[in-house]
From TrEMBL:
One of its GO terms (molecular function) is transferase activity. Residues 1-159 form the PTS EIIB type-4 domain. Keywords: Cytoplasm, Kinase, Phosphotransferase system, Sugar transport, Transferase, Transport. Signal peptide: none annotated. The keyword Cytoplasm applies. The lineage of its organism: Bacteria, Bacillati, Bacillota, Clostridia, Lachnospirales. This is PTS sugar transporter subunit IIB. It comes from Enterocloster hominis.
């Protein structure tokens, strides 16, 4: 299994907080964005790769390719941050045998069908139930916008 240091749900994917805070907090040298639609969009792929700091490789994969990649043996000094937009992607990876120590919930923006869940997180009923299933599987999910903020276990927010 690859060496995953940070697993984060954030619908903005690579943005200022990821680049300035998370990557500086952890020795991340690869960012894996898992998104089926984005994996087919070469223009957006170039934009995300350009947004990463020097020395950090950005890979964009669909769920099927990411599952295979994450199950491969780790390379020496390979430190990965996994970024997804919604929890269902991580639930599918967990079901396929990919493990995560914990999941950090960042931003999930408001859109039709979603209700405010916590600060800058909005979730619909399916996403909220997905959070519950992931937690029930043994993986904790913490809301944390930046590493300097205190983690908030979302288990408390779901009850």
């Amino acid at each position: 299994m690859k060496n995953i240091l940070v697993t984060r749900i954030d619908d903005r994917l690579i943005h200022g907080q990821v680049v300035t805070a998370w990557i500086k907090q952890y020795p991340i040298n690869k960012i894996l964005i898992i998104d089926d639609g984005l994996s087919r969009n070469k223009l957006m792929e170039r934009i995300y790769k350009a947004a990463a700091p020097v020395g950090v490789e950005v890979m964009i994969m669909d769920q099927e390719h990411a599952k295979g990649f994450l199950k491969e043996a780790p390379l020496a000094k390979e430190h990965i941050m996994v970024l997804v937009k919604v929890p269902q992607v991580l639930e599918r990876l967990l079901q396929s045998g990919v493990g995560f120590d914990k999941i950090i919930l960042g931003g999930m923006g408001a859109k039709p069908g979603r209700k405010t869940f916590n600060k800058n997180v909005s979730a619909n009923e399916d996403e909220t139930e997905c959070f519950r299933r992931i937690i029930d599987s043994g993986v904790e999910i913490y809301y944390q916008l930046v590493p300097s903020e205190k983690e908030v276990n979302i288990r408390k927010l779901l009850s």
